[in-house]
Design brief:
Layout lengths: L1 H23 L6 H30 L11 H21 L13 H26 L1 E5 L14 E5 L5 E2 L6 E2 L10 E5 L8 E2 L2 E2 L4 E8 L4 E5 L2 E4 L2 E2 L22 H9 L3 H5 L2 H4 E6 L4 E5 L9 H4 L2 E2 L3 E10 L9
Antiparallel strand pairs: 1-2, 2-15, 3-4, 5-8, 5-15, 6-7, 8-13, 9-10, 9-12, 10-11, 13-14
């Protein structure tokens, strides 16, 4: 969402910049120019409003894709609203023949004031969300009972470092993700057509718990997790299914198994056989193995492989909504 807000702020900022340029050049002495420029501002507002409304509804339906700035559907709805807004703005100014034109015309003056306010607020919000803190909504039951579907929480985005825009590099890392941390990350897929766990997950944000750090060897036997040969104590785990799946029937060489896992093929090859009988695999350098606390109802690293460090956005801070569930996760 922070990237979306940033580019919306840039769009409004361009309108504000051009308004000052036109003002200095005396362009607003023309009635036609006043009408057209005011209509352009209304079009921008309508375009942005339609975009944000569509994004909000898509988020609620679980269709949000963070790897794409705006979907084709969102842009189309925005353009339709923008065109309608332009015509409404063009014809809404009344009595232009008697009203004072120029930069002090009420509509132009008001538009510039609103542009300044929106530009400042949106840019500030996008910077705060990109660098420091972001709101996140729990989309599924994979983290029960730590989080419930519909819980709203804040994510600490600076704890693992600031990602340089449009790169995979991070700077000013305060700490690295550690085993037991609950992290929000972008799903590790390079192809929008890639299907995992029954659907396309490309670009979506997930929330899971770190189980394996870079270099750790992780294995699961009968649902119990072993890290570097030692059984992991997990008082946060919930098992929804009383029965355990048997090991996958096919015999695979350890090096091939590791390869299949890193290439995100295990879920496609063995389906739920890897749920309770998995590994051993070794988390590559710069990668993490993550799993959901609702262990039997979680689409996680067992199925689609490790998460690169640069895709980890932040750590779960605390639940802020609903009020009855305000708390810090453990």
């Amino acid at each position: 969402m922070e990237e979306k807000l940033f580019w919306i702020g840039i769009l409004v900022g361009i309108h504000l910049f051009l308004s000052h340029v036109f003002k200095e050049k005396g362009k607003f002495q023309s009635t036609a120019m006043v009408r057209s420029w005011h209509a352009s501002f209304i079009a921008i507002v309508a375009f942005v409003a339609a975009l944000l409304i569509t994004v909000t509804f898509d988020n609620r339906k679980g269709e949000v894709v963070t790897a794409v700035l705006f979907s084709k559907k969102q842009v189309i709805y925005g353009l339709i609203a923008g065109v309608l807004g332009w015509f409404w703005g063009y014809f809404r100014i009344r009595s232009l023949k008697t009203a004072k034109t120029g930069p002090e015309h009420p509509s132009i003056k008001e538009d510039m004031e609103w542009s300044e306010t929106i530009f400042s607020a949106v840019i500030l919000a996008s910077v705060v969300m990109y660098l420091f803190i972001q709101a996140f909504k729990i989309p599924s039951g994979s983290m029960r009972m730590t989080f419930l579907e519909g819980d709203h929480l804040f994510v600490n985005k600076f704890i693992y470092g600031f990602r340089i825009p449009f790169t995979d590099k991070k700077i000013l890392k305060f700490k690295k993700p550690r085993r037991g941390d609950i992290v929000v990350f972008q799903f590790p897929s390079n192809s929008p057509d890639d299907t995992q766990c029954g659907g396309k997950q490309y670009g979506k944000d997930f929330i899971k718990r770190v189980i394996g750090e870079p270099g750790d060897t992780v294995q699961i036997r009968k649902g119990e997790v072993y890290v570097n040969g030692e059984k992991l104590k997990e008082n946060y785990v919930q098992f929804a299914d009383p029965s355990r799946y048997n090991a996958y029937p096919e015999r695979v060489k350890p090096e091939d198994y590791q390869n299949f896992w890193e290439q995100r093929m295990l879920g496609k090859m063995f389906a739920d056989s890897v749920r309770d009988d998995f590994g051993p695999v070794k988390a590559p350098q710069g990668h993490y193995l993550v799993m959901g606390d609702n262990r039997d109802r979680s689409c996680d690293s067992r199925y689609w492989g490790p998460v690169p460090d640069h895709l980890i956005k932040g750590s779960a801070l605390f639940i802020y909504w609903p009020p009855s569930r305000i708390s810090s996760p453990r």
